[in-house]
């Protein structure tokens, strides 16, 4: 298994193999990695014929095999992409296991004119692809690439490339500030870049514009934490809470942020019942539309009663944190465990 840096260098050297398996959390990042091969191997005028995309969640072995066996049209190579190939996950259903076993036997002898690329998305940041036995087996025949987070300099350079592709220059100071504020996910990065470019139009981007339009990374952490509470994955929620505390050892600030988030979800839940829509929340909360859409989606995981009780739990925990001589981290863990007791 190799990382993105090694993979990128190999592609730039022209050292392109016949088969790849990509995995990571960031689908846009993976798509950018695929484009490195596509741009080198498939001329624009032949993309409709020599570039095949197959939905890995709705396919079968015969469809994949037939796509790989068909000769390229007026070219030396064709690229077959199996996106969201969930049958590559360490655990899959019976149909996924069947496809995987058939693919495993096939990829040992791919046609020389075919470049097969399969990718799947990791469940979360604690999902370790190096422990996936399926990848270890496929790695004997295909190159497995983990699209992990880029190192700081590479990350900033790639984000700068996003602005350049959109025809917009951004200053070095503003670029570094943008990278600090934005979530390390290229789907979000591209959307945030679009917002900034459209908002600033022909003038240069300033730090004040970034502050105005972007949610903070701490808000993203709290959103992820609440999402795990909603699906009752408390062990993972505790892991995220510890990561937040590691970045900012401020228990009162974190409990206050969680409380405000539950309170906002409660408010949105009530207003949705009265007929409010996403545009109303964009105007009221002065948040980007996609953030409001995420909040609306998250409210569906809770009842009004649940949200009210969760706010009370946060208030009680905040009161305890103000006391002296207590283990604050343990109190935060108790809060997360107690959310399991709140019924709909």
UniProtKB/TrEMBL annotation:
Enzyme Commission number(s) of this protein: 2.7.7.7
GO biological process, one term: DNA-templated DNA replication
Record domain DNA polymerase III delta N-terminal: where: 20-138
One Pfam entry name: DNA_pol3_delta_C
Gene Ontology MF annotations: DNA binding; DNA-directed DNA polymerase activity
Domain DNA polymerase III delta subunit-like C-terminal: 219-338
Enzyme class: transferase
SUPFAM superfamilies: P-loop containing nucleoside triphosphate hydrolases (SSF52540), post-AAA+ oligomerization domain-like (SSF48019)
Keywords tagged on the record: DNA replication, DNA-directed DNA polymerase, Nucleotidyltransferase, Transferase
Gene3D superfamilies: 1.10.8.60, 1.20.272.10, P-loop containing nucleotide triphosphate hydrolases (3.40.50.300)
GO-annotated cellular components: DNA polymerase III complex
Keyword Ribonucleoprotein among UniProt keywords: no
Catalytic activity: DNA(n) + a 2'-deoxyribonucleoside 5'-triphosphate = DNA(n+1) + diphosphate
UniProt record similarity statement: Belongs to the DNA polymerase HolA subunit family.
Listed name of the protein: DNA polymerase III subunit delta
Organism of origin: Clostridium saccharoperbutylacetonicum N1-4(HMT)
Gene behind the chain: holA
């Amino acid at each position: 298994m190799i990382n993105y840096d090694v993979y990128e260098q190999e592609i730039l050297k022209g050292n392109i193999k016949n088969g790849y398996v990509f995995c990571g959390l960031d689908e846009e990042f993976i798509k950018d990695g695929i484009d490195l091969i596509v741009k080198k191997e498939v001329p624009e005028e032949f993309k409709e014929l020599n570039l095949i995309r197959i939905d890995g969640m709705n396919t079968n072995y015969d469809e994949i095999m037939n796509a790989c066996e068909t000769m390229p049209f007026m070219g030396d190579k064709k690229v077959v992409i199996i996106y969201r190939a969930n049958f590559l996950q360490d655990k899959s259903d019976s149909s996924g296991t069947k496809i995987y076993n058939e693919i495993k036997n096939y990829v040992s002898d791919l046609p020389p004119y075919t470049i097969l690329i399969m990718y799947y998305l990791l469940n979360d940041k604690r999902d370790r692809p190096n422990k996936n036995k399926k990848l270890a087996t496929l790695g004997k025949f295909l190159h497995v690439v983990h699209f992990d987070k880029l190192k700081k300099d590479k990350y900033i350079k790639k984000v700068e490339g996003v602005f350049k592709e959109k025809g917009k220059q951004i200053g070095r100071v503003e670029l570094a500030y943008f990278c600090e504020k934005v979530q390390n996910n290229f789907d979000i990065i591209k959307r945030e870049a679009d917002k900034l470019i459209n908002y600033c139009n022909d003038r240069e981007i300033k730090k004040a514009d970034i502050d105005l339009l972007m949610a903070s990374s701490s808000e993203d952490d709290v959103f992820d934490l609440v999402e795990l509470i909603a699906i009752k994955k408390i062990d993972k929620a505790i892991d995220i809470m510890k990561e937040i505390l590691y970045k900012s050892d401020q228990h009162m600030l974190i409990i206050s942020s969680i409380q405000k988030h539950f309170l906002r979800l409660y408010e949105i839940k009530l207003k949705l019942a009265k007929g409010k829509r996403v545009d109303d929340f964009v105007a009221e909360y002065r948040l980007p539309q996609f953030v409001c859409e995420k909040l609306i989606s998250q409210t569906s995981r809770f009842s009004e009663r649940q949200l009210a009780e969760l706010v009370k739990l946060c208030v009680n925990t905040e009161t305890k944190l103000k006391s002296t001589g207590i283990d604050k981290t343990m109190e935060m863990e108790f809060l997360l465990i107690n959310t399991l007791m709140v019924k709909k």
